[in-house]
Amino acid sequence: MNRLPAWAEIGVLPVINLALALAVSGLVIWAVGENPFDAMLVMVRGAFGSDYAIGYTLYYATNFIFTGLAVSVAFHAMLFNIGGEGQAALGGLGVALACLAFDSVLPAVLMIPVAILFSAGFGAGWALIPGYLQAYRGSHIVITTIMFNFIAAGLLVPLLGGPLKREGQSSPQTREFAEDAWLPKAHEILDGVGIGMAKTPLNLAFVVAILACLFVWVLIWRTKFGYALRAMGHSEHAAEYAGVKVRRMTVIAMSISGALAGMMALNEIMGVQHKLVLNFTSGYGFTGIAVALMGRNHPVGIILASVLFGALFQGGSELDFEFTTITREMVLVIQGLIILFSGALALMLVPAMRRLVMRNG
Amino acid sequence: MSAPGVASVPPPAVRLSGIVKRFGPVVANDHVDLEVAPGTIHGIIGENGAGKSTLVSILYGFYGHDEGTIEIDGREVRIGSPADAIAAGIGMVHQHFMLVPTFTVLENVMLGAEGGFTLGPGARETRAELARLSADYGLEIDPDALVGDLPVGLRQRVEILKALRRSARILILDEPTGVLTPGETDRLFEILHALRDRGVTILLITHKLREIMEGTDAVSVMRRGRMVGHRKTSGTSREELAELMVGRKVLLEAEHGAPTVGEVALAAQGLSWRDAGGALRLDDVSLELRAGEILGVAGVSGNGQSELLDVLSGIRPLQQGAISYAGRTIDAKHPVDPAEMRRLGLAHVPEDRHHTGLVLPFEACENAVLGYHDGPKAGEGPFVSPSRIRGHCAGMMTEFDVRPPNPRLAARGFSGGNQQKIVIAREIDAAPKVLLVGQPTRGVDIGAIEFIHAQLLALRDAGCALLLVSVELDEIFALSDRIMVMNAGKVVGTLPRAEADRNRLGLMMAGVAA
Questions:
Q1: What is the 3-state secondary structure (H, E, C) of A126-178?
Q2: Within-domain flag for B193
Q3: What backbone torsions phi and psi does residue A227 show, to the nearest 5 degrees?
Q4: Can you state the percent helix, strand and coil of chain B, rounding each to 5?
Q5: In this structure, are residues A92 and A167 in contact, taking their beta carbons and an 8 Å threshold?
Q6: CA-CA-CA-CA dihedral for B84, B85, B88, B90, to nearest 10
Q7: What ranges in chain A are assigned the alpha helix state H?
Q8: Omega before residue A351 within 30° of 0, cis
Q9: Do B164 and B186 belong to one domain?
Q10: Contact indicator for A309, A303 with CB cutoff of 8 Å
Q11: Which of A3, A9, A225, A227 is best to mutate for the B interface (most B CBs within 10 A)?
Q12: Rounded to whole angstroms, how far apart are CA atoms B367 and A239?
C-alpha cells in the first residue's frame, strides 16, 4: 500500500525532520560567525542542564500541552480551531473572575477546582460561538476563530482598564489574588516531601495538563462520543448515515477544544502572575497549532512536541544571553525553522522514506 | 475493408509484447501480450484490480512500463506521455470525464489544441470539424452548449469528439457505460460501430459481460495482472468468459425461488422531497414493502432513487407525505433520525460505500459497528471496547468470507468487493426487519456479486423486507420479486417480475407508462 508503517511515520520521520531543522539552524548560526555546536550545547544545557532549566522548560511546555490538545481535539472532528489565543485569553478572564470573587471565602482545595471550571467554561463559551456559527449558519470556522482572537483582546483591554482594574493604580491589571488562589509551585510541593528544587514557575498546572492528556486520549479513542467525533472528522456523510448529529457534534467538539485552550490560563494566571494581565497568552495559542501538527494530534506526541517547544523557549533565551551575536530574533528564526520542517514540510520526506522502506521490506 | 477479427494481414493496430509493470512489490501487469486488429472493436474484460486500467494507462502514456514493447501499425513506438500517445494516433475516453464544465463543447474540444496565439481561426476550424464529425458518425451535438448543462451521455460524446479532433485512429474507452442509461448505452455502441466501419480501432475496457458479447469483435480476458485468454466474440460465451475472469465456474444468476410474502413491513404515502435548490427530487412516491419480498427499484441513476433511500432511512428529513413503520407514523411533524430508524429495525446498505457506508481511514472493525456504535456491540455505557469490536468483526469476517480477514486493516485497504461485504455483513448482522439496499454490487467483482446476491436472497427467505435500488437491470432481474420503475422522481409503475422484460422496463425508465 501507499502508507508508511507506523514506526516510520510516528517514530523516525519527526526525528529526521527535527534533525534537518537543527542542521539548517546550525548553518544560520555559522553564518553569523558562531560555532553551531557550541550554540547547540548552550541551548540543550539551558533547557535540560539543571533542575532550574528543566523547571522552566516544563513550565513553558504546560502552555503548549493545553493549546496543542485544544487544536488536536477540534482537528479530529476536521475543524481547524485557530482561536486558541482568544480562548486562552477568555479562560484567563474566567480564572480571574473566579479568584477575585472567591479567594477570600474558599480554601485552596475548593478554589482550584472552581478556577479550573471557570477557565474551561469561559474558553468553551468563546469557542462555542464560532462552532455554532459554522454548524447552523455556515460561517467558516477558520475565519471566525481568527476574528474571535481579536475580539477577545478587544474585550480584555477595556475590562482591565476599567471595572477589573486594581484601585489606585494606572496599569491595566487586576489586584493580586489571595494566596489560597495560587497554584502551588513544583519546588514548594517537592520541598514538602523533602526534595530540594530550584525556584521555577513550574506549578500544579503541569499535572492538570498531563491529566488533560489522559482525558483526551480516553475521550477520543475509548468512548462512543470519540468514535462519533472521529467518524465525522473523516467523513461527514458516513457520520450522518451512522446517526451522528453532525451540527451538534461540531458545537460540542469546538467547546471541548476551547475549554482545553482556556485552561492554559491556569498555568499563567493562577500559577505565575497571580493576577490578570494583558497579553499573557503571548502566541502560545498559535504555537499550539504547530505542536498539534508535530505531535500528530495524539496526546503522547503532543507532550513530546510541547517539551521540545518548551526547550526551545527556555534554551533559546539562554542562547540570547550567552552570545552577543545571537539575538532574540535569531532564536525566533530557529523556532520558525523547526515549525517549518516539522509542520509545513512534515510530509516532504515521505516519498523518500517510502522508497527506502519498500526496498528493504 | 477486411472483415472484423480476421488475422492480421495488415499489421495489427496495436501490439503489446511482454508488458510488465510493477508498483513496488505488486506486479500489476505480468508479461501481458495483446494484439488488436485494425478496424475492430476489441474488448478487454477482467475483474477490478485485474490490471486492465493499468494496461491501457501504459498504452496512453500515463505510466511507464518496466519491460516489453509497444507497436502501433507494425512500428515500434516509445510512449512516455499522453502527448506521445496522441502523436501516435491514440485517443482515450476516461471513466471520469476530463472536461471543464463551465466551458462550451467547442471550447472543451479545442482545449489543448487551440492552434495559435489567437483563438479565432482555431475555433472556426474546430467548428467545421465538429460539423463534419457529427455528419460522418452521427455524433450530433450543439457546439455552443455549456458542458455543465449536458446529460452524462452527451458529455461522453464530447470526450469522444475531443479524441477524434486530435485525429485518433485508435480509441480507448475505459468503463464507458457505468454512468449511462440503457438507451444511452445502445446509442454509444451505435456510434462505436460507425467509427469501426470507418476504420477506427476501438479498445473497450469493461467488466460487463453483456457489453462484450453484444458490442465487440474480439475479447481478451485478464486476471490478476495476466492475460488469460483471447477469444473471438462469436466463438465464446458469457459463461466461458466469466470462468476465465474468476478462475473457477461461476453461477451467473442466483437461485431465485418463489417468495413467502407476509405482512406489510413498511408503507410510504405520497412522499415528496425538494433539494436545497428547490428541484423536486421525489414526486408523490407511494409504496408498500412486505416481509419476505424484494422490491426492486429500477431507473436511471439520478431519478430520485437516492433521495428515496435517504428519506426512508431518516438521513433526509421528510417534507411531505408519511411513512408507516413499526407501528409509528413518520411525517414532517414527527421526524426520525437514522439512529432511531436503526433501533426500530431498519438497516441500510447505502449506495456509496466510499463516502457513506464506510469511514475509509477507520479499521475494518471500527467500520463493522458504524451506526451501531451507540449500542452494546461497541462497548458498555459511554465507552468503546476495542477487544469486543475486534472480536465482533472477526466473527463477521469469517461468516462473510471477507479477505484478508484482518479486523485491524483500514477499510481503504480492502478491495471493492470486500469493502461491500463488510457493509452488508454489518447491516445483516443487525437482524433487520427492513433492509434498504442501494447498488449492492457496484464496482464489485463477479465472485463477490454471487456471494452478496445469495446473502440478500437468504435474508429475504428469513422474512426480511428488502428494498433494492440498482441501476443494473441484470441485478434487478436476478433478485426482485416485484419491480418498481422510477423516472424524474415519480413512480412510473410497479410490475411483478414475471411481467417485466428489458424492453418494457427500458420504456418505463424513459418515463413512458406501462
A1: HHHHHHHHHHHHCCCHHHHHHHHHHHHHHHHHHHHHCCCCCCCCCCCCCCCCC
A2: yes
A3: -60, -50
A4: 35, 25, 40
A5: no
A6: -160
A7: 6, 13-31, 36-48, 51-76, 84-102, 108-132, 141-161, 186-192, 205-222, 224-234, 236-241, 246-262, 264-265, 284-294, 299-322, 328-339, 350-360
A8: no
A9: no
A10: no
A11: A227
A12: 11
Any domain includes B258: no
Q: Is residue A327 part of a domain?
A: no
CB contacts of B414 in chain A (<8 Å) are none
Residue at B197: amino acid letter: D
Consecutive H or E run containing B162: helix B152-165
Tens place of pLDDT per residue across chain A (361 aa): 356 677 777 778 878 888 898 899 999 989 988 899 998 899 899 999 999 999 999 999 999 999 999 999 999 999 999 999 999 999 999 999 999 999 999 999 999 999 999 999 999 999 999 999 999 999 999 999 999 999 999 999 999 988 888 888 888 999 999 999 999 999 999 998 888 889 999 999 999 999 999 999 999 999 999 999 999 999 999 999 999 999 999 999 999 999 999 999 999 999 999 999 999 998 999 999 989 988 889 999 999 999 999 998 898 888 888 888 888 788 888 888 888 887 777 778 778 877 777 666 4
- Domain of residue B477 covers 264-509
Which of B313, B359, B378 shows the shortest C-beta gap to A235? B359
Same domain? B221 vs B353: no
d(CA A106, CA B199): 94
A3 Cβ contact partners less than 8 Å away, ≥ 6 residues apart = A9
Comparing CA positions, the residue from B233, B242, B234, B232 lying closest to residue B207 is B242
Report phi then psi at A216, rounded to 5.
Answer: -65, -40
The one-letter code for the residue type at B137 is Y
Rounded to two decimals, the ipTM of the complex is 0.86
Which residue do the cell numbers 482561536 mark?
A: A83
Q: Determine the angle formed by the axes of helices B446-461 and B238-246, rounding to 10 degrees.
A: 100
Identify whether B514 is part of a domain: no
Give the total residue count for chain A. Answer: 361
Q: How close B340 gets to chain A, by Cα (Å)? A: 8
Chain B residue with CA closest to A359: the answer is B24
For residue B472, what are the CA distances in angstroms to A340, B151, B492?
51, 19, 18
Q: Tell how strand B226-232 and strand B218-223 pair up.
A: antiparallel
In this structure, are B238 and B291 located in the same domain?
no
Distance CA(B332)–CA(B22), nearest Å, equals 55
Among B50, B52, B45, smallest CA distance to B16 is for: B52
CATH number at residue B217: 3.40.50.300
One-letter identity of residue A332: L
- CB contact (8 A) between residue A224 and residue B379: yes
Stated as kind and residue range, the H or E segment containing B492 is strand B490-496
For chain B, how many structural domains are there in total? 3
Alpha-carbon distance values, B280 to B149, B283, B315, B335 (Å) = 18, 6, 17, 20
Could you tell me if residue A51 is inside a domain?
no
The burial of A70, by beta-carbon neighbours within 10 Å (0-12 exposed, 13-18 middle, 19 or more buried), is given as: buried
Task: Tell me if chain B has a CB within 8 Å of the CB of A359.
Answer: no
Residues of A in contact with B378 (CB under 8 A): 224, 227
Q: Which residues pair with B295 in a beta bridge?
A: B467, B482
Angle between helix axes A51-76 and A205-222 (nearest 10 degrees) is: 30
The pairing of beta strand B218-223 with beta strand B328-331: unpaired
